[in-house]
Design a protein that fits this description.
Number of helices of chain A: 10
Strand content of chain A: under 5%
Shape of chain A: elongated
Number of strands of chain A: 0
Helix content of chain B: 55-70%
Mean pLDDT of chain B: 84
Helix content of chain A: over 70%
Strand content of chain B: under 5%
Oligomer: heterodimer
Largest sheet of chain A: none
Largest interface: A-B, 24 and 28 residues
Number of helices of chain B: 11
Distance between the termini of chain B: 57 Å
Structural class of chain B: mainly alpha
């Protein structure tokens, strides 16, 4: 077994373990941290495939930003697990059927016939000067420029929609206007009055 | 026994480990003496003397501090999450050290000259926030948790502005590779990217100050409001590791700013008539000098500005910096298309 295969199996084992822990641990913060670990090992696997741009972007976007916000929210939740478990038996058939549906769908797409060695070529080692960043950029901005731009626009619409849906004016919220705050002059706030000194009685 | 290829591989690994030591030991020494420089410089700025008792003029003060922290007991708070509590300082220092793996000290002197080094550094610096958040949560303390929440929101907000500023650098440099970015600034002091990217330079550096939780953006510590923020429950060496991470991050941000905007190891006299006078200076000294200058700004900020209010920090990040970077990216892209020299030819 060469070194690379050893690295692959170690990373794969950690990835499967972390992914399993995400759905089995009780504590939601621990689950989120296991998800971080899963992303990280996944990035390691992508590095083995010479996809360094995707691997680093995965760490940058998912580990560095998305999961931080996830943790942010999850840490502030005060989850009481007992009411969640109350309807377990009642919802079990629905849950099982949804799970089965997803399983069947995934089986139809991700199976050996579609992704086996006969269908997919074994990834070849690239020559030393190969730059994954350059290749990806060339493909994204030439062959797939329209899908890429459309995806970007859809994301932008989603951002605006999310803000528009959740933003509401609340009368009790107080805002500060920094422009007004720094434009204040002392004569607007303090009035100096001249008067004669008062005599002691 | 050992065949030649295995021997070569072992030798390679040993050699890389030696290189890592050669980067990290000076880095840790720099961190130690940065704390000394900070206390001295801020002292002089405030007409005090600063530490002057341990060793000649206080030169051994950082060593004494490190020894003191090593001797102290590490206290685990009641009901703290033991594992996460211990691992949090490591999570905050590991990215601060790992980022140096791709850092080019000169065009030859770099541990790993990878293609996406700028992206790699950005990804690793964005990992540092985990140490802070986990420390705050695992401490089982209100103040630590408040500090962690503040820090998380602040770092995530400023990372966007920082990322956009770096996009500007990579447009101007035409590469994600730090060595190529520095080489694109060849010419003279006016060819360096600080001039065409002046707004991005300012945004990058101020965001860097915010990312490292330094004054005036140190609300996650906020000793006057929430005692010491996320590391209030840490003592001894565990606290020292957080301290180390903060200063290592400062050095990293300062060094990156000098690489990307101030020409890295290029001589400031390049292209002028006195260039040959300074030909004997090794290039790494220019980089170190520029880094030291940027670090001075960190200390100067701390001595000068009062702490920002939390809503002001958020406003500055989202409503000022991000629009500035987006506008400047558009201008820069137009300049690149119009081939405005001497930078975008």
């Amino acid at each position: 077994m060469d070194f690379q295969r050893l690295v692959f199996y170690v990373l794969a084992a950690i990835l499967v373990f972390a992914a399993a822990r995400v759905i089995t641990v009780r504590n939601p913060v621990h689950a989120a941290l296991h998800l971080v670990l899963a992303f990280f090992t996944c990035a390691g696997l992508w590095l083995l495939l010479e996809a360094e741009f995707l691997a680093i972007t995965l760490v940058l976007v998912y580990v560095g930003a998305v999961m931080v916000l996830f943790l942010f929210v999850v840490m502030m939740l005060d989850i009481n697990t007992s009411p969640l478990r109350e309807g377990f038996i009642r919802y079990l058939p629905v849950g099982l059927s949804v799970a089965a549906l997803i399983l069947i769908e995934m089986y139809l797409v991700v199976r050996a016939r579609n992704f086996g060695v006969e269908v997919m070529a074994i990834p070849q080692r690239h020559a030393e000067g190969y730059s994954n960043v350059r290749e990806l950029g060339a493909v994204l901005y030439t062959d797939y420029v329209y899908p890429f731009e459309i995806a970007a626009v859809i994301l932008l619409v989603a951002i605006i929609a999310a803000i528009a849906l959740t933003m509401r004016k609340r009368p009790e919220t107080k805002y500060q206007n920094p422009a007004q705050q720094i434009a204040v002059r002392s004569r607007d706030r303090v009035r100096i009055v001249e008067m004669k000194a008062e005599k002691k009685q | 026994m050992i065949d030649p290829t295995t021997g070569e591989m072992i030798w390679n690994v040993v050699f890389i480990v030696l290189k890592i030591v050669a980067i990290l030991v000076p880095l840790l020494l720099a961190v130690a003496y940065l704390t000394y420089a900070e206390r001295k410089i801020i002292g002089y700025m405030q007409v005090r003397i600063g530490p002057n008792r341990v060793g000649f003029r206080g030169w051994l003060q950082p060593i004494a501090d490190a020894l003191k922290l090593l001797m102290k007991e590490i206290i685990l708070p009641t009901n703290a999450n033991r594992f996460l509590f211990v691992i949090a300082p490591m999570l905050s220092i590991a990215p601060a050290m790992a980022a140096w793996a791709v850092f080019p000290f000169t065009d030859k002197l770099v541990l790993a000259n990878i293609d996406a080094s700028l992206l790699y550094i950005l990804a690793l610096t964005s990992m540092g926030v985990y140490g802070v958040i986990i420390a705050g949560w695992a401490s089982n303390s209100k103040y630590a948790f408040l500090g962690a929440m503040r820090s998380a929101a602040q770092i995530v907000s400023y990372e966007i502005a920082m990322g956009f500023a770096l996009v500007g650098v990579l447009i101007a440099g035409g590469s994600l590779n730090l060595v190529e970015i520095v080489e694109a600034q060849q010419g003279s002091l006016l060819h360096w990217f600080w001039l065409p990217l002046l707004p991005l330079f300012l945004v990058y550096f101020i965001s860097g100050v915010a990312e490292t939780n330094r004054a005036p953006f140190d609300v996650s510590e906020g000793e006057s409001e929430i005692v010491a923020g996320f590391h209030v429950e840490y003592s001894g060496m565990a606290f020292a590791v957080f301290f180390l991470a903060e200063y290592a991050n400062m050095i990293l941000i300062a060094a990156l700013a000098s690489l990307m905007f101030l020409g890295g190891w290029l001589s400031p006299f390049q292209g002028s008539w006195i260039e040959s006078w300074f030909a004997w200076v090794p290039p790494i000294f220019w980089l170190l000098g520029k880094t030291a200058l940027m670090l001075l700004f960190f200390l100067w900020f701390r001595a000068t500005f009062p702490r920002y209010r939390y809503d002001q920090i958020m406003r500055l990040g989202w409503k000022v910096f991000i629009p500035i970077t987006i506008v400047w990216l558009v201008i820069e892209a137009a300049a690149v298309m119009a081939r405005i020299g001497p930078w975008f030819v």
